[in-house]
What does this fold into?
Amino acid sequence: MRVLVTGGAGFIGSHLCELLVHANHEVICLDNYFTGSKKNVYVLLNRPGFEVIRHDIINPIDLEVDQIYNLACPASPVFYQINPVRTIHANVLGVTNMLELAKRTKARILQASTSEVYGDPTVHPQREDYWGNVNPIGVRSCYDEGKRVAEALMMDYHRQFGVDIRIVRIFNTYGPRMALNDGRVVSNFIVQAFQGEDITIYGKGEQTRSFCYVSDLVAGLIAMMNVTEFCGPVNLGNPGEFTILSLAEKVLKMTNSSSKLVFRELPSDDPVRRKPDISLALEKLGWVPKVDIDKGLAHTLEYFKTAINGA
Ligand code: UDP
It folds into this structure.
């Protein structure tokens, strides 16, 4: 099959490209390199059936493809807030362009949505039938409202034009190939611990997140793309829930770091609690995450150690 992966040089996209190439698909990786990196796909460049195109999905592109994984969008709050209008455009113009491509080629399209569609949730854990609690005018709305429009567009192209769609809501994901300067909590804490810098905890660190290792997440994406008779949305995430403070302590312990914990102002609209209910993923896809936080962090630490030394 010919598979298009937008955002294919990004953290999750590059792991997905790798698995698809190993499964002998022809893979076209699109990336504008805003947050993705050519380094992430170096290992694939000499593989037959793999090609990379520098392209921003806010502009249309015409290709012949059978499946589209639409992952292109900065996902770290630090990066999606650099140019918020562009973030919205990626989710409205970009998603529309990909849906038009899917419509013309009759390709199945999977949209990477997010747990951010639940906003600061009043229901815990979050199930797919919860409609969310999102601030429509806040600093995160370029991303969370953007992704909500993207889901609406997907559903409307499905209902109005019969486009074959899949929607996954991705919860916090971590692992090798996160950018050192990504700004998200796992990469920040690891880099700070290795470099002996202060560990920056926003707020009191009592807020929670649930962290999914990247190999589990990518297995879920592929399962969802290939399931029949179910278009989602489906949550993909690891239900293990940790306070940010406990994550910091875990990273300190695993790195034997002497970094100090420092407390910084909590960014506005930062969700208080987040944990996926993944019973739908289990029922429809037979998917459950396999890598626990200790094992996943150990792999991630190894990657960061090398990446920091080579940087
Ligand atoms: N966070 C933190 N220190 C950091 C980076 C993030 O305490 O250096 C917190 C952040 O305020 C949030 C949580 O960690 O409560 C997860 O943040 P991240 O940016 O990784 O993802 P989010 O789930 O907020 O999109």
Summary: Residues 9 and 41 are 6 Å apart (CA to CA). The radius of gyration is 19 Å. The chain has one domain: 2-175+212-238+273-289.
